[in-house]
Amino acid sequence: MNRRDRLYRVAPVAVLALCAGSLTAQALWSDRDDGASTTMPTGAVSFAAQAADATTPVVSTDGGPVTLTLPGSEIIRVLDQTGPDPDPVFWRFTMSGAALGITGLAVDVRLDSTVDRDGTVTDISAGTASPSTVLGGSVVKVYPAAAGGDCSAVPVTPAGQEDRNVVIYDGDGYQLQAAGTNAGGSTRTQEWCVAMDWIDDPDGVYANQVQATAVGMNGEVSTAIADWSAVVAFPRSLHTSGDYVNEASVIGTGADGSRPRDEDGWHAVLFPDPSAEPSVVITLDPAVTNLNPSVATGDQPSYSATP
Asked: What start and end residues bound the annotated signal peptide (predicted)?
């Protein structure tokens, strides 16, 4: 039985009430088999996610994962950053949910694929993207926001993951709500940050030095040296797609019958249009946790009828 088959059903609001009246909760509460004399709510679960620029949330209606889209138009904003070491650009999304009774809610966060405008899907589950894309020249870090939705503390790239274009922090089984801590059924919300930064080529330094020597009236020699430098930052762009070369030549005939000629050439470097950048699919996969140690995360509790 896979995880999705075992996952608690999830509703737009906490309306999936699991009750034990004439039924006995074998897995969620205990192994008791004497039946319950009154209707007793044992759990209800809801989960949804919403991008910061969206007007409505995406709701899980069957316990399955929900997906959000990080638009390519957001990713290419990294190309607009200037200077030797500019700050990353940010995008945000929010996950929210509630789990009543003795249940809790954990969420897996994944960035598994990109989608081109023509619908072509590319797998990026290994954390690396095509070098022909802006994402392939950038690093995208996904992590829970600090208090107040603060995204400024961008995590350091873990050792051994420096070659990845996508790095996710706390994305495996993130605890949105601990089991058995939400008797009132209030919605728990967590904002997440997506920090995007271009992987700049190493900057260079343009150094200058001037030395001046002068001889005074008394024959004394004076020397002065001045140094200054300028940091050279490479412009952010996709890899070039080629050069556009132009050549022109002209021949004329002079009044004396001479034949002067001249030739000239110029070229332009061509860059791909970054506006075709693929979007990134963000998958948020909820699972139900439980105070009962005999119920594994994601298990749907089983019930048996009281004789």
From this structure: 1-27
Tell me the one-letter amino acid at 254: G
Q: Show the CA angle centred on residue 42, arms to residues 107 and 102, nearest 5°.
A: 50
Q: Do 86 and 162 reside in the same domain of the chain? A: yes
The CA-based angle 270-275-278, given to 5 degrees, is 115
What's the predicted TM-score (pTM) here?
0.69
Number of domains the chain is built from: 2
What mean pLDDT is predicted for residues 107-114? 96
Q: Do 58 and 196 have their domain in common?
A: yes
Q: Where are the alpha helices (DSSP H) in the chain?
A: 3-6, 72-75
Asked if residue 10 is part of any domain, the answer here is: no
In a domain, 301, yes or no: no
Q: Which residues pair with 207 in a beta bridge?
A: 229
Q: Are strands 166-168 and 138-144 parallel, antiparallel or unpaired?
A: parallel
Identify the top-confidence range among 169-173, 207-211, 230-234, 246-250. Answer: 169-173
In terms of residue numbers, what domain contains 84? 44-201+275-290
**Which amino acid, one-letter code, is at 122?**
T
